[in-house]
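Entry:
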Amino acid sequence: MRFELWEYCLFGYLVLVNLVAFAAMGVDKARARRKDWRVPEASLLALGFLGGGLGATLGMLLFRHKTKHSKFVLLLPLFLILQAAALWYFVFREAMP
């Protein structure tokens, strides 16, 4: 299987946005403990929506952050599932009938 340039760019984007989403969850958890300025919830959800579903979900679970907020518990895994399905389609679309 040979990948095109746009596929490498997409992969790089997904790696970057997932790292940023994971880090944002960790930073927000640390700031919450210190009662410091926080990352807005809308920003955390936007990172998950814009391709960072895996990083945001892992950050939520590993840092035990936002796990009592139903919108995070429901939306972040949903974003992850939809992104995984889209990625699966784009990677294996040529093998499909």
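The mean pLDDT is 93.
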